[in-house]
Amino acid sequence: MNALQRGACAIVGVAESDLGQVAEGLSPLDLMGQATHRALLDCGLSLRDVDGVFATTSQSRMPTLALCEYLGIAPRYHDGTNIGGCSFMSMVAHAQLAIQAGLCEVALIAYGSTQRSAGRSNVAVPDVNPYEAPYRPIYTASSYALAASLHMHQYGTTREQLAQVAVAARQWALLNPVAWEKNPLTVDEVLGARMLSHPLTVRDCCLVTDGGGALIVTSAERAATLRKPPAYVLGVGEHLSHYHITSMPDLTVTGAARSGAAAYAMAGLGPSDIDAVQVYDAFTITTLLFLEDLGFCPKGEGGRFVADGAIAPGGSLPVNTNGGGLSYCHPGMYGVFVLMEAVRQVRGEAGRRQVAHCETAIAHGNGGTLSSQSTVILGSAATL
User: Fold this and answer.
1) CA-CA distance, 229 to 327, in Å (whole number)?
2) In what order do the strands lie in the sheet with 52-56?
């Protein structure tokens, strides 16, 4: 990633497809197509301008080929990276490399999933691990429950502190008109919900929804001529540490420590320079781990950091301002939505949940069972 230049590219268009539980008969490609056309409308470009396509989904073996056929385009450059929910952050970096190298000019990054509508049919299942399968874990909740259990044991993190993450996400979601969850949530309700995999209840776990999203990335020069203020790519970083949770080097330290460090170094910024934080919250424990590993609080202090509403509306650090995967939407691979919210905050387009004077935002993605981590730092024109 050393060839990447700070601010050389920008995200210029973002959009969701229909979300929640979509109309019967819609496919993941339909949702990718919806999001693509809406993202192009957002920035004032058309399909004729797209010459780079980056796509993934767990419901297609060859999503980039399928999407290009669906849209009727033949791009000069394509990428089907799949490292789980952080694939889209990595695709931002890959798209910038391609644009800087002259391999394409306008890159589309797209995702779609009908996991709620499809149920267990036509949705990918994890590879079997003979060392874990005999214990009959609930994939992926049991994996994250291991990390939560060790964090609680090692640092004194409490169930109430984990619950505060879910409560804060719900408070943000209530400010987002397209969020799935519409009712307030309390710590007691999180603790009293059905236990899924100890110590995590169902309210510690992400939603199961349908949905798709799309991003349009282009050069800084072209971005300056388009409809909306660009969100410039200031820094990126990625790290792979394991596949199965039983091979994770330390259950309380994720690859975000390395991907975040790389992104900060490229951006020339640190945690104190970030105005809005968007992290992949598949489970309440992931928010704590990423806040620690991205430098917003010391290792082991995540639970105490969030305990008094620090990450909720009105708190000291705005985190997951769209409601996150816990309360906004979570159609399987959530990272594209993390990026969209970061872009909207930098643009000043987030409505009632807008962070005041937001010039920088970090978008951090997670894949597998804390396996792959990818970080993107975005900034307004004032940060160049």
Assistant:
1) 28
2) 77-79, 52-56, 106-113, 211-219, 9-16, 231-240, 372-379, 360-367, 276-279
Residues 309-344 have pLDDT tens digits of 999 999 999 999 999 999 999 999 999 999 999 999
Residue 157 and residue 46: Cα distance in Å, rounded? 49
Structure confidence at residue 6 as a pLDDT band (50, 70, 90) = very high
pLDDT (average), residues 353-377: 98
The predicted pLDDT at position 361 comes to 99
Torsion sign, CA atoms 301, 302, 305, 308 = negative
Q: From start to end of 205-252, where are the E strands?
A: 211-219, 231-240
Residue found under tokens 């282009």? 218
Which residues 6+ apart lie within 8 Å of 87 measured at CB?
A: 56, 81, 333, 335, 365, 367, 374
Work out the pLDDT band at 127, boundaries 50, 70, 90: confident
Distance of CA 108 to the CA centre of its chain: 17
Question: 118 or 359: whose pLDDT is higher?
Answer: 359
Residues 6+ away with beta carbon under 8 Å from 148? 157, 162, 199, 200, 204, 283, 284, 285
Domain locations in the chain as residue ranges: 9-121+207-383
Task: Determine the Cα–Cα distance for residues 141 and 199; give it in Å rounded to an integer.
Answer: 10
User: Is the preceding peptide bond at 249 cis, omega within 30 degrees of 0?
Assistant: no
Architecture category of domain 9-121+207-383 in CATH: 3-Layer(aba) Sandwich (3.40)
Alpha-carbon span 329 to 272, nearest angstrom: 28
Alpha carbon distance 32, 118 (integer Å):
16
What is the C-alpha to C-alpha distance for residues 376 and 365, in angstroms, rounded to an integer? 9
Rounded distance between C-alpha atoms, residue 234 and residue 379, angstroms: 6
For 103, 152, 202, the CA distances from 383, given in Å and listed in that order, are 27, 38, 40
**Confidence band of 26 (pLDDT split at 50, 70, 90):** very high
